Amino acid sequence: MEGGVLWQPFWRGRRVLITGHTGFKGAWLCLLLRELGAEVTGYARDIPTHPALYELARLDEDVCSVRGDVRDLVGLRSTVRDAEPEIVIHMAAQSLVRRSYQDPLETYSANVMGTAHLLETLRETPSARVALIVTSDKCYRNRDAIHGFVESDPLGGDDPYSSSKACAELIAAAYRESFFARSRDNQTTIATLRSGNVIGGGDWAEDRLVPDCMRALMAGGEPVIRNPLFVRPWQYVLEPLKGYLMSAQRLWDASADTPTAWNFGPLDEDAQPVSVIADRIVELWGRGSWKLAIGEEPREAHSLKLDSTQSRTALGWRPQTTLDTALQWTVQWYQAFHSGHDPRETSLEQIRQFLGTAQTPPRSEPAAGFAKAG
Question: Would the pTM count as exceeding 0.90?
Fold first, then answer.
């Protein structure tokens, strides 16, 4: 398959533990692993939004779901012990920049101590062969550089969210060197994963561009846009998730020189200003316009790009979808939801087309199919 291979026999029956599985990316990852035949246990504090893709897609039918907080070391240990995971994917986090300004202590406790608790638990988990710590493209020290960040660039962050993700990177590195790399008793391979801004159907988070646009358009209103000139590395949600799983396959039999940090971002031309994304969303929806937010906004980096050369060369990973295809699939998902179609089936159809296994074109609305990836 173009852009690298997810080897289905590798995942069939594989025991996978996901923290934060009820979130937007977590729900898509659960659906993807279901399609590949994995046995998934999820650990999350709650359903983060209402509605939520996790509930709409009825993922409790596919996942052994445990409610718990990664800041609860006892509960986390119990869940991991019972699940005996072979692969752990840590996604639980406070993931919103604006909320990190409102409640920095929650952000640091979830993103820093939650990561430390997960890594501490892995010290007692001999079944875990690979652990992936998902951080963020915002973990890099960003001075609005125009180049794409590479994995060896300095870490940092001027806002609580970004700095908490840089801290999570440092904790992962410290645990790897102190307790795993030199241990004969624990052979868990630990890597960190950094992806760009993901878009896709089923995201209902506050203060994110696509969900804010979709809520407004479905209600017949005008989306309110902040920072229209800010540039972000936009990509379809399944792109980095595929990269996560490909990195797990690679790390399963890792050698000493296997990279321990991976970027998953779009091609340079798909790093576009917020205004371009908003314009295209409104155009694809078929009516309406957006308006500019009034008032002072918290500080964020003006430009952010990722260099994913390492993932392309070492994994064979590359984006399968263009930015326009990603936007088409995203808007069509919400149009299908708005028209009363089953979100689970819509999501699985997109996954099957993305994986190249769909036998018929996916349906987004009556008599219409998803745009082909290209």
Answer: yes
Q: What secondary structure letter does DSSP report for 372?
A: P
Q: 70: alpha, beta or left, given left = phi > 0 and alpha = psi -120 to 50?
A: alpha
Check if the beta carbon of residue 112 is closer than 8 Å to that of residue 168.
yes
User: 81-98: per-residue pLDDT in tens?
Assistant: 999 999 999 999 998 888
pLDDT tens across 267-307, in order?
Answer: 888 989 999 999 999 999 998 889 988 766 666 656 778 99
The closest of 373, 141, 148, 350 to 269, measured between CA atoms, is: 148
Do 43 and 92 meet the contact criterion of CB atoms below 8 Å apart? yes
HEC letters along 307-349: CCHHHHHHHCCCCCCCHHHHHHHHHHHHHHHHCCCCHHHHHHH
Tokens representing residue 18 in the block: 């996901």
Give me the CATH number covering residue 207. Answer: 3.40.50.720
Q: What are phi and psi of 155, to 5 degrees?
A: -90, 155
Residues 124 and 180: beta-carbon distance below 8 Å? no
2 part of a folded domain:
no
Any domain includes 201: yes
